[in-house]
Design brief:
Helix content: 25-40%
Strand content: 15-25%
Radius of gyration: 17 Å
Shape: globular
Number of strands: 6
Structural class: alpha+beta
Order of helices and strands: HEHHEHEHHEEEH
Number of helices: 7
Strand order of the largest sheet: 2-1-3-4-5-6
Distance between the termini: 19 Å
Length: 171
């Protein structure tokens, strides 16, 4: 599987999640090779195959319906271990942030900091989708609520989150 396949899968996840609008809870997805998924579940072929066929390295995402991260996504991810059949995984989060020139004004108290950021006039809402593979690939995409037509993407978009996700794949 290539990093291009991971990037394509994450962009597809972001489009899927975007249909639900903003203010959604964190969501978790398993990533599996599409060809293996079709081989295991031939009835899915019609949904997963494109007119030009399935790309040899394509990945399909399977949402983990029971995932409930609560308020601490990192703690929730720390308790997850994927079976060997899962090639990779991805998580979708929405967060608020403020520009760097405002960061020094953020209170040290966590509750006060949340309130400060949530009510700051320069705050931005962002949705990030970060994914990793067992082969060591990582990628992330992000969309700002104020710029819905733009999708930001990079291998190291949210490296700390990618590192936590990678641990869920460790055998």
């Amino acid at each position: 599987m290539t990093d291009d396949a991971l990037a394509a899968a994450l962009m597809e996840i972001e489009r899927h999640v975007a249909h639900g609008g903003w203010d959604q809870p964190a969501r978790l997805f398993a990533l599996v090779p599409t060809a293996e998924l079709i081989a295991a579940e031939p009835s899915l072929a019609a949904q997963l195959e494109r007119p030009d066929g399935v790309a040899q390295d394509a990945l399909s995402s399977i949402e983990q319906e029971g995932f409930n991260a609560g308020t601490d996504v990192l703690d929730a991810l720390a308790g997850i271990a994927w079976p060997a059949a899962v090639f990779g995984c991805a998580v979708v989060l929405e967060r608020l942030f403020v520009p760097p020139h405002v960061e020094e004004q953020i209170p040290d108290d966590e509750a006060e900091a949340e309130t400060f950021v949530a009510h700051h006039p320069e705050r931005q809402d962002v949705r990030v989708v970060v994914g990793v593979t067992r082969a060591g690939g990582q990628f992330g995409v992000a969309r700002l609520k104020t710029r819905p037509e733009e999708l930001l993407a990079a291998e190291d978009l949210v490296p700390g989150l990618a590192q936590v996700l990678s641990r869920t794949l460790a055998e």
